[in-house]
Amino acid sequence: MKFNPVEVINPKLYKDIFPYAEIPKIKFNNIQLPMDVSENIWITDTTFRDGQQSMTNMNSEQMVRLYEYLHLLDNGSGIIKQTEFFLYSQKDRNAVEACMDKGYEFPQITSWIRANKEDFKLVKEMGIKETGILMSCSDYHIFNKLNKTRQEAMKMYLDIAYGALENGIVPRCHFEDITRADFYGFVVPLAKNLMDLMNESKINVKIRACDTLGLGVSHAGVELPRSVPAIIHGLKYYAGVPSSSIEWHGHNDYYGAVTNSTATWLYGGASVNTTLFGIGERVGNTPLEAMIIEYAQIKGNIKNINLEVIKEIEEYFEKELRYDIPPKTPFVGKEFNVTKAGIHADGLLKDEEIYNSFDTGKVLGKPPLVAINSYSGISSIAYWINSYFSLKSKEKIQKSDERLITVKNKIDEEYEKGRTSNISTEEMEAMCNMYVLNNKYAYNNKAI
Ligand SMILES: CC(C)C(=O)C(=O)O
């Protein structure tokens, strides 16, 4: 071991930042670091590991179907580069084998294992080229969970990495709880030792910076250990880790999962780890779909990612996995572009661009809608029908159409009875099918 950690008698727990009895603090130092976006940036997926742990377990068929969906969404772009699987149970291994049999280039299949010789054998036998291994970095973990000194923990982690390399496997070293870790006293020496192993073995070694409790902060001028720019910049410049080996794994406890992942890209890490719809431990991980939108904004395009597939994945989650996506979730919730305020609805009717920031109909297959309630007039109802059923030119329902009066009367009756809530999408769909469209454009064929 060439680079030793700074040994401490007592764990360094940053109590000035994390007093436990109070909300954590952000300390500012006003140091501005240079942005440094890599030419090539990408997304990895942990829906089957961190994601799946937070919901009802998926069976092998469901995992394989979702893997196919990820492949269809990626659509050969290579932006959704990898996805990782547990290998613990026969079910997981069956899923991995079936996914590998598909022979897709993207997402590449990687694993997550306990750090023991048997598991390395398994990875190798299954023909998997990369595996994740836990390397907890903060003294909360080293002292209080592992009951080790920093030196002992570092030695153990390097042995594990060495074991992977001996088997010809790329170790992806999960630096758990990096946002509460002593960066220069432990993280940098560990990363430097790992880079030595990479250079000696000529096998790639990756570092995944895990913001285990979602404490990372993306603003400029923040002190370590919470600063995402300082962590990413520091891994690159103080530990010599190449961009392509730096990845961020975020949790959304402080609503920072997306901005922290974006900061990783901006300050020189190539990869951000995500889950579909942000499912994951506690409040969840970084949502994959959000990072596609971030990618589009940073790079100006999404190569040939097929965003319309997201709609199918949403349906699959809701119908097959019984997971309800909260309706107000950006880009994927049923109401993400539904305008409710009367004055906004009025603007939308005049010109869609006034209250929709991009053509969600064209890009995501989800045109903006207006909510229907006691204030909705005939023109809102006409707009709702035309958008929801994607009616074009001649098919469009005009506000002079008499059939709309029946719908309007039905809605008014509801509010006369004392209703206060909006008319739901399902109710509108059923009413329109019955009184206006005669089921011609029905999506779900629901009766009222
Ligand atoms: C268990 C570790 C690797 C993790 O997923 C996290 O830190 O969130």
UniProtKB/TrEMBL annotation:
Residues 41-311 form the Pyruvate carboxyltransferase domain. The keyword Kinase does not apply. The lineage of its organism: Bacteria, Bacillati, Bacillota, Tissierellia, Sedimentibacter. SUPFAM superfamilies: Aldolase (SSF51569). The keyword Protein transport does not apply. Keywords: Transferase. GO terms for molecular function: transferase activity. Pfam families: HMGL-like (PF00682). It comes from Sedimentibacter hydroxybenzoicus DSM 7310. This is 2-isopropylmalate synthase.
